């Protein structure tokens, strides 16, 4: 199990009302109305969208770190994370598609960078062995 050697940052968010509720960060910078993805009424965001945004940002940071370590520039890179939710037995499960584009790099180089980023991204490491995550390079 990977655990931090020391805590460098803590995020704290409290939600009420479940999937059709409200979430607020301790510092108030995040304050969102949550909607249930199985019910298209209402406006707000889903827990899956919040997770996709966080995973995408974290993965893009890992990508930048990996690219820099091998002397490549990945400015302007995009990481699109798709969370796919569906039934699984008596409950639900999700899988993840991570699509990576790096302007100025060919798809093979981008795939190599993405695979390396997948090894060090904290979100990828947290999901490893529990959730199917597909990492794919696309034309930048």
List descriptors:
three-stranded mixed beta sheet, alpha+beta, three-stranded antiparallel beta sheet, single chain, N-terminal domain of TfIIb, GMP Synthetase, Chain A, domain 3, about 140 residues, globular
- CATH class wording of the largest domain: Alpha Beta
Shape: globular
Question: Got a strand count?
Answer: 6
Enumerate the spans where pLDDT stays under 50 for 5 or more consecutive residues. none
CATH superfamily of the largest domain: K homology (KH) domain
Number of helices: 3
Query: Strand order across the biggest sheet?
Result: 1-2-3
- CATH structural fold name of the largest domain: GMP Synthetase, Chain A, domain 3
Tell me the span between the first and last alpha carbons: 34 Å
Helix/strand/pairing category:
alpha+beta
The share of residues in extended strands comes to 25-35%
Radius of gyration, in Å, reads 17 Å
Mean pLDDT: 94
Examine the secondary-structure arrangement and name the CATH architecture of the largest domain. 2-Layer Sandwich
Order of helices and strands: EEEHEEHHE
Structural domain count: 2
The biggest sheet amounts to: 3 strands, antiparallel
Q: Percentage of helical residues?
A: 25-40%
């Amino acid at each position: 199990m990977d655990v931090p050697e020391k805590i460098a940052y803590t995020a704290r968010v409290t939600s009420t009302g479940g999937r059709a509720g409200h979430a607020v960060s301790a510092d108030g910078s995040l304050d969102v109305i949550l909607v249930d993805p199985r019910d298209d009424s209402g406006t707000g965001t889903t827990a899956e969208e919040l997770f996709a945004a966080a995973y995408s940002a974290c993965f893009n940071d890992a990508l930048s770190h990996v690219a820099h370590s091998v002397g490549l520039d990945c400015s302007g890179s995009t990481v699109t994370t798709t969370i796919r939710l569906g039934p699984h037995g008596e409950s639900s499960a999700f899988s993840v598609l991570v699509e990576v584009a790096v302007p100025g790099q060919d798809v093979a180089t981008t795939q190599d960078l993405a695979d390396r980023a997948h090894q060090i991204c904290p979100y990828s490491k947290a999901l490893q062995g529990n959730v199917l995550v597909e990492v794919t390079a696309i034309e930048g």
